[in-house]
Design a protein that fits this description.
Rossmann fold, single chain, about 55% helix, 14 helices, alpha/beta, globular, about 300 residues, six-stranded parallel beta sheet, Histone, subunit A
């Protein structure tokens, strides 16, 4: 506990997909009597293992992991719910004298935990209903184009198929006349709930993209197609938010005969690389992040040691 501020300490390991966050976080947790709290918006789902690159059983046995496999793919799950559950786990670990190590690439989850979520004006139900009806009738493409006109900064961060977040951004704009990105920017300066050391992983862009391409091939070889077939067989509809995520929507499209295999592999790699770019943009806007290459474990551990000594 940081005596001066009265805030618990935690370590955050963040960065783009495929860069090696899990391995770095496990090394830190083992060195400092820590446990891992996942900050991944896909690893929360049961039955979705390969496409979300969940820590292996061996990795989860090496260090306890939390907030993995906690909801069904059909369930809605928000950043606010994540912040509440993760906050409860941080409190419990501190009471046990265990260091929470938050690891993941979902920037909104990390921000929601460390800093809380911003409060915008209440949304009138009729605005939400009208936008939802528009999405149901015409899909997300036209709404995404509208968002690009009104709030290009938010649109750049979102995938055109991310109907949930597109609707939320448009709701805020129509209700308040203010862009959701403006609310989020103002919220960046709010007090943080924890005394957090943030470590971001980065590497040369070409090397990262090569790792991502290799990871996609590894997922395919590990049975990603069978995993998606299994989800469909369990009755999880392709339209679910979880099933619209990277990897799953691509394989569903192939299974339905809407894309041949080479096109599926190509677009899956491309969209994963694009997602990594968006993650780098998000984390790159946080001046508190200490950037390290994935292999610099000793440097990361030195940062953590100094952080904990200063807080004692």
């Amino acid at each position: 506990m940081n005596a001066a501020e009265g805030k618990p300490e935690l370590v955050v390991v963040c960065g783009p997909t495929g860069i090696g966050k899990t391995a770095a976080a496990i090394a830190i947790a083992q060195a400092f009597r820590g446990e891992i709290i996942s900050a991944d918006s896909m690893q929360i789902y049961k039955y979705m293992d390969i496409g979300t690159a969940k820590p292996t059983p061996e990795q989860q046995a090496a260090v306890p992991h939390h907030l993995i496999d906690i909801v069904e793919p059909s369930e809605d799950f928000s950043a606010a719910q994540y912040a509440r559950l993760a906050g409860e786990k941080v409190t419990a670990l501190h009471r046990q004298g265990v260091l929470p190590v938050v690891v993941g690439g979902t920037g909104l989850y990390i921000k929601a935990l460390v800093q809380g979520l911003f409060r915008s004006a209440p949304i009138e139900p009729h605005i939400r209903q009208r936008l939802q009806e528009e999405a149901a009738a015409g899909g997300s493409a036209s709404l995404y184009e509208r968002l690009r006109r009104h709030d290009p900064e938010t649109a750049r961060r979102l995938h055109p198929n991310d109907t949930f977040r597109i609707l939320r951004a448009l709701e805020v704009f129509e209700a308040t006349g203010r862009r959701i990105s403006a609310y989020q920017q103002a919220h960046r300066f709010a007090d943080e709930n924890y005394h957090a050391l943030k470590i971001g992983l980065q590497m040369e862009r070409a090397a990262l993209f090569a790792r991502i391409n290799h990871r996609v091939e590894t997922m395919i070889g590990a049975g990603l197609v069978d995993e998606v077939r299994g989800l469909l067989d369990r009755g999880y509809a392709p339209e679910l938010k979880a099933m619209q995520s990277i990897g799953y929507r691509h394989i569903v499209k192939h299974i339905r005969g809407q894309a041949d295999w080479e096109e599926t592999r190509r677009t899956l790699k491309r969209d994963t690389r694009r997602y990594a770019k968006r993650q780098l943009t998000w984390f790159g806007a946080d001046p508190a992040i200490n950037w390290k290459e994935p292999g610099r474990l000793e440097e990361m551990q030195t940062l953590v040691r100094r952080f904990l000594e200063a807080a004692a």
